[in-house]
Write a structure and sequence with these properties.
Helices cover 64% and strands 3% of the residues. The protein is mostly helical. It is globular and about 65 Å long. The relative contact order is 0.12. Bound molecules: zinc ion (ZN).
Length: 501
């Protein structure tokens, strides 16, 4: 029974194993490797990527998929077997559209561009990054042509990170909630004197920060028997299997937030991977389904739980015990307000929940316009600053604080940014459904009990891995597609109280 399926599965496991081996090398590069290892590591990663790509796009995959589809005829849509064939077929169709020389050209252009971007950002000099970025944009336009698209080239790129969603849909979702965010931020600004966050900017011993943050994410349910945490310059989460999930973080000795909320964020990603069904592990379905859904998990734990009052009702006494000199006299209300301060800022990664999606909308407008040929790379700094002024009422003092701040474009990651904003929207949608199913969740959180929420997420989201795309999953869970209504209502409720609006 299901003989072909087993053959297919063995073939796909070989490919997944190669990709997981690459992930180990990549994790090592970002956490342990001495700088001298860079050239050899790039070559090792390229070899693994080539072998994996050849194995996956070869005729064997096509034949096994076809034979298995015949064998499974009539099986349920959401069965492991049917989902494996359906999702892998889509992966395969996309992978074979990209010629090997295009893949190599992108790999070369982006590995060169990374250093150029880092230097340009350091020197605050966009022009020295311009030609490298022009090359990448050209390659991404070419990629869109290879992949094909329903309406506009940017659709093809977007689909690589969020399967099934179109540029027009993203634009519509953004258009609906942008004016509401702008209005909310303007109102908050009139009440800015309500919140003071200076208590968070004090000296905080790094070992104590680490101990506290590890306790918190352990309490959330991140399983350290099946994962670990290390240091890196840019925090991230990765997995080698659902029993080996890696989180990274960085610490600032004079600001509490980056490590504390960063750990909650990465643990949210990590718990998603740990929650994927064992039967899917090591296959193309083992892993989070899309970047947007992934980000919904990290933002849910970081913000909806980690920046909530019930949570700090439980956690603040412990934080005060860890930092009695700095926080001994701080009450819950003051602390809660401080961690939720809203301030238009130039840097996306430092943005609060109210302004964050505007940072994304700006990038979405610019990158989709570049791919459509409507904005030239040379004009980016000016286009960036004009929009920034219109969105936030402030103008970046330098390109370093503006158009040069993000690593993504230098890595060829165009079409990626919207998923951050979609993740915020989905976090509120999923959380609302969770508390509808289990009204005790907020009071559980106030008692340091997180398993009601985590098991709801495991049952409804995590266990499915990549079986369903974001829209299918969201409809199954909430009965509707992604929307901004829940997120906006969440922000309005939260900030009305904090700012006394
Ligand atoms: Zn994230």
């Amino acid at each position: 029974m299901a003989e072909q399926y087993q053959v297919l599965l063995r073939h796909l496991r070989d490919i997944t194993n190669l990709n997981r081996a690459s992930a180990v090398l990549d994790w090592d590069q970002q956490t342990q490797m001495p700088p001298g290892g860079a050239a050899a590591r790039a070559s090792q990663l390229a070899t693994l990527a080539r072998i994996s790509h050849e194995l996956f796009t070869g005729e064997t995959t096509a034949r096994l998929l076809e034979d298995t589809a015949h064998e499974l005829d009539g099986a349920a849509y959401d069965s492991d077997e049917m989902s494996m064939v359906r999702v892998t077929q889509l992966d395969y169709e996309e992978a074979v559209k990209l010629p090997a020389d295009h893949v190599a050209a992108v790999s070369e252009a982006t590995s060169l561009a990374h250093a150029v971007w880092a230097k340009a950002r350091q020197d605050n000099h966009f022009q020295s990054f311009q030609s490298a970025l022009e090359r990448i944009v050209d390659l991404m336009i070419q990629r869109a042509d290879y992949l094909g698209y329903p309406d506009q080239p940017y659709d093809a790129l977007l689909n690589g990170y969020e399967r099934g969603i179109t540029t027009a849909q993203v634009k519509q979702i953004f258009d609906v909630h942008k004016p509401e965010l702008v209005a909310l931020i303007a109102t908050i600004r009139e009440h800015a004197n309500q919140v003071d966050d200076s208590i968070l900017h004090q000296p905080f011993d790094i070992d104590k920060q680490r101990d506290f943050a590890l306790d918190i994410v352990k309490g959330f349910g991140f399983d350290f028997e099946r994962g670990r945490q290390d240091l890196s310059v840019h925090p991230f989460a990765t997995h080698f299997s659902n029993n080996d999930v890696r989180l990274t973080t960085r610490f600032l000795s004079d600001f509490l937030n980056p490590a504390l909320f960063g750990m909650m964020h990465e643990a949210g990603h990590g718990m998603y991977e740990q929650g994927v069904a064992a039967a899917l592990d090591g296959t193309p379905l083992g892993g989070g389904t899309s970047l947007g859904v992934h980000e919904s998990q990290s933002r849910l734990w970081e913000n909806i739980v980690g920046r909530s009052k019930p949570f700090w009702n439980w956690a603040l006494p412990q934080l005060k015990a860890a930092f009695p000199t700095q926080l001994g006299n701080v009450d819950l209300d003051t602390f809660y307000k401080a961690i939720n301060v809203v301030k238009p800022s130039f840097i996306r990664v430092e943005a609060d929940e109210a302004t964050y999606n505007l940072h994304i909308m700006l990038r979405f407008e610019l990158e989709s316009a570049m791919i459509a040929g409507k904005v030239k790379v040379a004009d980016l700094p000016e286009e960036w600053n004009e929009r920034f002024e219109a969105f936030f009422g402030i103008t970046p003092p330098s390109d370093k604080m503006g158009v040069l701040q993000d690593i993504h474009w230098s890595m060829g990651l165009i079409g990626y940014f919207p998923t951050y904003a979609l993740g915020n929207l989905l976090s509120a949608q999923y959380y609302n459904k969770a508390i509808q199913d289990h009204p005790s969740i907020p009071s559980d959180i106030a008692n340091g009990k997180f398993d009601t929420l985590l098991s709801w997420l495991q049952t409804n989201i995590h266990q499915h891995g990549r079986k369903f795309n974001a829209d299918e999953l969201t409809r199954r869970i909430t009965g509707e597609s992604i929307q901004s209504r829940d997120y906006i209502a969440y922000l309005q409720r939260k900030y009305s109280e904090i700012y006394g609006i």
